[in-house]
Amino acid sequence: MAHKPSAPVANPIEQTGADYLQTHRIPELFHNLSASLVYNKP
What InterPro entries does the annotation carry (predicted)? Predict the structure, then answer.
């Protein structure tokens, strides 16, 4: 699933999706952790 950076991308929509995931991965992860802490209190 991982694309080589030097490889040409055939589908620009795929590239946009990859860029979106790369940009939002950390905030999404943080949000998910925060939500799990809030909703699953010990």
Answer: DD_EFCAB10 (IPR049760)
pLDDT given at position 7:
55
The pTM assigned to this predicted structure is 0.34
Measured in degrees and rounded to the nearest 5, phi and psi for residue 28 equal -65, -45
Q: What are the C-alpha distances in Å from 18 to residues 15, 22, 24, 31?
A: 5, 6, 10, 19
Give CA–CA dist 42/31, Å, rounded: 19
E strands, the chain, where?
A: none
